[in-house]
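Chain X:
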Amino acid sequence: MGYRWLRIAVWIVVALAVVGNVAVLVVILSIRSEVASVSRFLMGHLAFADLCLGLYLLLIASIDAHSMGEYFNFAYDWQYGAGCKVAGFLTVFASHLSVFTLTVITIERWMAITHALHLNYRIKLKQAGYVMTAGWFYSIIMSSLPLSGISNYSSTSICLPMEDRDTYDTIYLVTIMGLNGVAFFIIALCYAQIYMSLGKETRQAHGASMGEMSVAKKMALLVSCS
């Protein structure tokens, strides 16, 4: 990684990502409720995706610690070995599943808040299951393409599919960027509508309405973090 502060920061993120998302999964799986919650179902998928991203960072941090000061002796074996392929698969799978799940969560919250009086507009658990199955297939396909020769995970030491050799590689990279852009647009649009649905009184909140204004600000923060 080249810098000590970067190594320390990565290990901190690894600890938070692994411990935090494992804790979320344990809590979600331990809840026993007669009525299945779509929100908990989706949050479980998001936590699993973020856990995979934490495991990717753990692999990168571990090889960095193992090869510190002499990475040139390990570069070829690492980048063209199974380890880098596993790390690359994890990060592409995790990032796509995370963005997909976050988009679905946003749409589910948008429907629940902006159509609060219309119960038929809610996403049911069965529907959420079908949607997330599609999301898993999509994420697995996108993370498997570099293993089949479309771009590859060996072009960089952090095992990201950055190689652009031909038209197929270009289409793959543009598709990734385009789909992430579409997801961000959907998330931003949904949260903007949620914010607007709070009403002018809330946006100019005073006194008791400050709580709702705080919620609106947190929504804007979520869009920025996305």
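Chain Y:
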Amino acid sequence: MEVDTIQKPALAVDPPDENFDPDFIPETGEQYLQKVMYERGKCPVVVVAANPQARHPQKVLTGLGAVPTDDVKNIAPQALMPTKEWESMQNQKFAELRDIITAYRESAQYSENLQRTHVFLNFDDRKQLHEYCANNLPYVRILLSIPQRNLEMLLEYLHEWLQDSEPASGQSSQDEPSDPELCDATSTLTPTGSKEPRRTGCRKDWITQWIYAILACLILPLEPYIHSVLRDIAKSCITLRNELKQEDEMKVLPLNLLISIISKNFNQSDLADNVP
């Protein structure tokens, strides 16, 4: 049968016959190509990878941390679980906050304030970022001056710090920010709405405050790997909640809030506490 011109081989090499010795060391280019053809003929048409779950627990990686899927089993006391009504209220407030921030981004005031916001943060220096976040509130006017890629990077760092920290503490407030220029996007996580800087080591809820604030400022749609980061944050919150006792109702509020926000607003409904 005549071979099509496009399919005609560049080098005419006779295929190995039944007398071909695969252990023979090729001495010419033709012998080498024959050995390649022989080995190719021994390869299976379809290759199936071994099941990794048979030997190792599956992990979801973010680049900075990995949370085994086994760790997301919810074993927290029922008293620490959020109600549907509470979740609905928090998600509504979060959606309203995002609407405020979106409208602020489109205003002339935003461009003017952006020119006045000068906060130098070295995103390659985790120690500097940790110190800054632990001692400063996550004001929206600061977060909006940071490029989204850096906010995404900071989310990864915050997840790492969340895993290294004790469960978040603090009391929830019902007040939402009214002035987008100066608002503290995490007033639902602060007990008094205080705008005084915090001291490193005194409280750990600054981590969840910064995560909440960044979530409110992210521009959608997100890159797939950021959804993976958000999943890992929610899983870490579930793991931290599992370590709390029944009487730790105030400590669980920031954790429940992040789980609810991420599962509802960032398409991670399989991690939700109350499936609609």
